[in-house]
Design a protein that fits this description.
Keywords: DNA-binding, Transcription, Transcription regulation. By secondary structure, the protein is mostly helical. It has eight helices and no strands.
């Protein structure tokens, strides 16, 4: 259980940036402690499985963001064109207009997807294809 002295969501966001910048294998514990401001003990207390646990927390956070911010819009908004416009704006904002690398891409570039074989389909929504009904409705 994470210590109440730090914001778990903020730590996950900082971890995500370390993984984006250095990839999974390049994200050393020293880089992670520097970026989060936490010591090794605090990190392992919050993420008992170590770096893999940290990466899974980041990937889970991204999956939640896409589910709640992108896919739910496509499923709930009545006007498909407006839904896609909202989705594209959210994704543009998330990726800082192309200035932020996709974490799945960063992991794929350093061969980390071997560690997380099921995550790419989860995050991209390929399994559920949440955008398919909206595309069909748009014609």
């Amino acid at each position: 259980m994470p210590s109440p002295s730090f914001d778990h969501d903020e730590v996950i966001a900082r971890l995500g940036e370390v993984f984006r910048h250095y990839g999974y294998h390049g994200a050393s514990l020293s880089r992670i402690t520097q970026a989060t401001g936490l010591g090794k003990g605090s990190l392992y207390n919050a993420f008992p499985g170590g770096k893999e646990d940290m990466a899974n927390a980041v990937l889970g956070s991204i999956d939640d963001w896409f589910s709640n911010t992108v896919f739910s819009v496509l499923e709930q908004q009545g006007d498909p064109a407006a839904a896609f416009a909202t989705m594209f704006e959210a994704v543009r904002h998330y990726f800082h207009s192309g200035q932020r690398i996709c974490l799945m891409g960063a992991f794929a570039m350093d061969d980390s997807m071997i560690v997380f074989p099921n995550k790419s389909a989860d995050i991209s929504g390929v399994g559920a294809m949440p955008w398919r009904p909206a595309l069909c409705a748009a014609g």
